[in-house]
Amino acid sequence: MRSITKPVLSHADITRLIRQGLGDDAVVTGHEEFTDGFFNAAHAVRLADGREVVLKVAPEKGLTMLTYEVDLMHTEIEFFERAAAAGVPLPTMWHADAEGGVMVMERLRGVSFEQAKQTMAAEHVLAVRHELGRIAAAGTAVTGERFGYPRRDGRTRSASWRESFLCFVDDILADATATDRPLARPAAEIRELVARHAPLLDAVTAPALVHFDLWDGNVFVLADGDGWRVEAVIDGERAFYGDPIAELVSLATWIPEEQAAAAIDGFLGRALTADEQTRLTLYRIYLWLILVAETAVRGYPEKENGELLAMAGGQLAADLDRLAAV
């Protein structure tokens, strides 16, 4: 879907950026834009030496974005480096320039899980869900020095997960109210409801690396014998250091209960406790607020923008009611 955050790149732009990243001997013979993402521009690029790479370019500086979206290319580079070192399957990163907002990485051979699951047998879908849970657990085993987003200005960074997460919520509520987004409850009431349950966050004492965007479109799979396996995960720009349970927002939302259970079992090896369920509700509320706030700044087509606002607003209302009932 087209978003105003995606820079429009000409053939000359792509050639220049590829040569800057890979050297003057990198000759571009063809390219095409991926249309699945919603923030950065991403192009598949073919080179004369037979290599196929992906060029990823951050939004142009000066665009109006959400508060948490500052320095996301720096965040993605850090996620790639640290998660890959922990054994998380990721595309090889050939070039990374956080300041210039450019990454060049290998092009994966597989297809997105979002696409593949349409024709996969049910048992194969469950197996991939379980494997993805294990992969996510390996990522959250990586720890940082402080909680919060790894942006270079330090905003939201702290020694307390409760403090950092409440900063997340304050920032996104400020974004939503500044652009007059419709919310299921008044912003002050949402903040009070989240704060009421925030003491549960003090159970989190180690800042875990959380991808926070492992929906099926960001997971690539390959046929493997009679089944399927995860080739790699992509798009780590939404990552932060926080509660590992927050990873389940993308792993176990929007999918049937049996599949969610498989992902949770792969991730934790057990069911969630009651307190973890409440923490997960808090993190889903944060995601719904992000999606609501996005509708003011992305420039999505009117129909898709309205559908996103209706979906996220409905989910936000349901989770706020769930939280209020705890």
Automatic annotation (TrEMBL):
It comes from Catellatospora citrea. Gene3D superfamilies: 3.90.1200.10. InterPro entries: AGP_Transferase, Aminoglycoside_PTrfase, Kinase-like_dom_sf. It comes from the Bacteria. This is Phosphotransferase. Pfam families: APH (PF01636). Residues 34-274 form the Aminoglycoside phosphotransferase domain.
